[in-house]
From TrEMBL:
Superkingdom, natural source: Eukaryota
Amino acid composition bias (Polar residues), ranges on this chain: 53-76
Xref: InterPro entries: RAB3IL/RAB3IP/Sec2 (IPR040351), Sec2_N (IPR009449)
UniProt entry keywords in alphabetical sequence: Coiled coil
Organism: Pocillopora meandrina
Coiled coil: 108-199
Disordered: annotated segments: 1-24, 38-80
Protein's recorded name: GDP/GTP exchange factor Sec2 N-terminal domain-containing protein
PANTHER family attached to this UniProt entry: RABIN3-RELATED (PTHR14430), SEC2P DOMAIN-CONTAINING PROTEIN (PTHR14430:SF0)
Similarity remark: Belongs to the SEC2 family.
Source taxonomy: Eukaryota, Metazoa, Cnidaria, Anthozoa, Hexacorallia
Length: 421
């Protein structure tokens, strides 16, 4: 049996297969032994020598034969026989040796083994790659999810910021609006205070005048005739003595007319009826007369549509008027259609547009606003004066509307520069 190659553990199967029998063992100390065919020839030679040696020893131990030829032939035959036996024994030993000797792998087997090993490595690499792909896909999904959440968070933050800015702007606009309205109310209240002061002064003078005239108080007596003169006109323009007796009695029926102011009887009765009703309807006779004779002509402008809108805004108490800041500018009046120095502008409602006003248009509108303001005070019970005093104040406001309509601005003392009707 041959020895295992000393360099087989350092070489791959292909390298072992490719080496020739004459290549030296560079890893060992001796020359590489022969392959199986050389080893069997050596074995054959050694067995033959052993057979010869045993045959020689046997001849020597035997006695010599008398017949040399026969002995020689027998010996030779014996040798032949021994030779054949030797050959047979060698052949059987040789076959046994060949069966026991290991055979080197072929090229196809080496390639098959290498292919299988590479397939296994490829399969492992594919499995690892698949795992890495799954991990990468998982990480990609996580990244996409984080990006989407970040975008949603950014969008929500921007929306909240815009909402906060919008709310702040709305609050600021509302605060500015309230501030402006408060300023307007302050101006209106200041104007009303001035008007009330003037009203108090006027009421005081009227009261002193009424004491000299001796008017009767508002009661149910105005529907009955005067007991002194038996006349219904005594309620209107008849003067009385300080003791309350009528100067138009029978004894004084032929006296001259008095120089004192007289009141229209029909108008005064309508006024008393309105004081009982405290209504602002156009169907009320007293107010209907004033609307027709004073308010309507005072607000009669070339721009009919805008004039009606101004009248409606005054009645609804929504008209706003303000003064232009800065130097006066030559503008076109919205009511008259003429170009004048417009120092004021008017707005019919909070969300309406502004209209430029000339001086005459403003004076006429302010006169109407004063009348409506006083009527509202009477309706709300804020005026605590006598009936006759209220009547004369209403007549004074009517005269202001007439003067404003005639363009006599100097006779009309407007108490406020701008305000709410």
């Amino acid at each position: 049996m041959t020895e295992v190659l000393s360099d087989s553990k350092y070489l791959s199967p292909e390298a072992i297969f490719q080496r020739t029998s004459s290549e030296p063992d560079i890893f060992g100390t001796a020359i590489r032994q022969r392959t199986c065919s050389n080893a069997s020839q050596l074995q054959y030679n050694r067995a033959r020598e052993r057979s010869r040696a045993s045959f020689t020893n046997g001849e020597r131990s035997r006695s010599p034969s008398p017949v040399g030829t026969s002995n020689g032939s027998d010996s030779e035959g014996q040798m032949v026989v021994d030779g054949s036996t030797l050959n047979e024994s060698f052949n059987s030993e040789d076959f046994t040796f060949r069966d026991r000797a290991p055979t080197s792998p072929s090229r196809e087997e080496v390639k098959a083994q290498a292919f299988e090993r590479l397939q296994e490595e490829l399969k492992k690499a594919q499995e690892e790659l698949k795992l890495k792909d799954e991990e990468c896909e998982k990480l990609s999904r996580v990244r996409n999810q984080l990006e989407s959440e970040l975008e949603e968070l950014t969008a929500s933050l921007f929306q909240e910021a815009h909402a906060m800015v919008r709310a702040a702007n709305v609050k600021r606009a509302a605060a500015e609006k309230r501030f402006k309205e408060a300023n307007n109310k302050v101006e209106v209240l200041q104007a009303e205070v001035s008007a009330l002061k003037q009203l108090v002064l006027t009421s005081t003078s009227s009261q002193s005048h009424s004491r000299g005239m001796g008017w009767r108080r508002h009661s149910s007596e105005h529907l009955s005739p005067c007991p002194d003169c038996n006349s219904y006109d005594c309620d209107a323009a008849v003067t009385m003595r300080l003791d309350g007796t009528c100067l138009r009695g029978p004894q004084n029926g032929n006296n001259s007319p008095s120089d004192e102011s007289e009141v229209d009887v029909i108008l005064f009765r309508e006024f008393l009826q309105w004081m009982d009703e405290r209504s602002v309807s156009h169907d009320q006779p007293f107010l209907a007369r004033i609307y027709k004779e004073d308010v309507g002509p005072c607000l009669d402008f070339p721009n009919k549509e805008l004039a009606l809108a101004v009248h409606s805004a005054i009645e609804n108490n929504t008209l706003m008027m303000e003064t232009f800041s800065g130097k006066p500018v030559f503008r076109k009046c919205a009511l008259t259609g003429t170009s004048r120095f417009c120092l004021h502008r008017v707005k019919l409602s909070e969300k309406g547009e502004w209209y430029n006003l000339s001086r005459n248009s403003r004076v006429r509108i302010v006169a109407v606003c004063d009348f409506y303001t006083y009527v509202r005070y009477i309706q709300q019970g804020l005026v605590k004066a006598d009936v006759t005093e209220i009547y004369w104040e209403v007549m004074r406001l009517r005269s202001e509307m007439a003067l404003a309509r005639l363009g006599m601005e100097g006779a009309v003392k407007v108490q406020r520069g701008s305000g709410h009707s």
